[in-house]
Design a protein that fits this description.
Elements: H1 2-17, H2 21-26, H3 28-39, E1 47-53, H4 58-69, E2 73-79, H5 82-90, E3 96-100, H6 104-110, E4 117-120, H7 125-151, H8 176-207, H9 209-214, H10 220-249, H11 259-283, H12 287-303, H13 316-322, H14 326-340, H15 344-368
Parallel strand pairs: 1-2, 1-3
Antiparallel strand pairs: 3-4
InterPro entries: ABC-2_transporter_component, ABC2_TM, ABC2_TM_bact-type
Membrane topology: Multi-pass membrane protein
Keywords: Cell membrane, Membrane, Transmembrane, Transmembrane helix, Transport
Length: 373
Amino acid sequence: MSVLIFLLRKEFKQIFRDRAILPLIFIAPIMQLLLLPLAANFEIKNIAISVVDQDHSSYSRQLIQKLSASGYFKLEDYGNSFKHGLSQIESDKVDLVLEIPRDFEKNLIRESHSDLLVTVNAINGVKAGLGAGYINQIIQDFNADVRMRWVNPDGQQNQSTIDIRPSNWFNPNLIYSTYMVPGILVALVTMLCSYMCALNIVKEKEVGTIEQINVTPIKKYQFILGKLIPFWIIGLFVFTLGLFVVARFVYGIVPVGNMFLLYGYLSIYLIAILGLGLLISTFSDTQQQAMSIAFLIIMVFMLMTGLFTSIDSMPDWAYFIAKLLPVTYFIEVVRMLVLKGSGFGDIQYHFLIIIAFAFILNGLAIYNYKKTA
């Protein structure tokens, strides 16, 4: 125990002695958590639209007002020529063109139908799909309003209708940052701990202090624990700061689940992810090598673990890879506990998986670490 305490003192002194690295450990993750949820937002609003109104009727004006008032569209151009509206798409000034033909109101009243042309810039498939969906829904609502006025000119609603009132659980206001903040916090803690732990050991290889440690009677497991525990504590501190300071006071996210359960899972997860950092360091002789390996792994963690999109939407091969990554399970657990208030019965499978990851990654790191004495 005295050997381990000596190693821990040495590690903490080494970490806090480096004035340049302290902001990267404590300030950078908090700044990223403040900014990234605002940028990583899949809510599409202020879609630029050009309206070609060839009818200039009361109905066409009502439709345009309904589009502008929706909050999803921004009227960038208003004219009489479809060719001009199409040129706006080609110059990337607008995303959609809505053409209202001549006699739109007359055909709608006399023949009970009229055509509208919606042209969508589909270079950005997500934005195009959502924009087309928004405008279709608005046109349907407009059509329903018009027909209701025809049935009841006095505004009285005499027909029986089904009153639909949606109830949104866990995120009642459908705020996208509420969904993103827990996942981004997991990604930041993961990158910080694995990255810094890997570089810490490789740095000792480069400066030669690792050779001095290798010839001492320090056991292999003592050396590994001495490297793991400091970053385990730092990971707990950064996660706490992000969850109870930034998430709560900046984004208004109040955890509803059992925090002892969350921190129990976090403790095991940090052991697993630090084991990954240690494993990377055993394969690297320089910090540049460690950074390259860590970069490749972190890119996979960012894009294939359900941080931005559900893994259920991925192809089978990508879904299989996602299930082999520990970050996938922790992102899901944090969202379940913080937003839904899930209990142990809901995440017991996740506990078994992360315990297996902790044993495998640290076992491989200890096995692969070469000690000469």
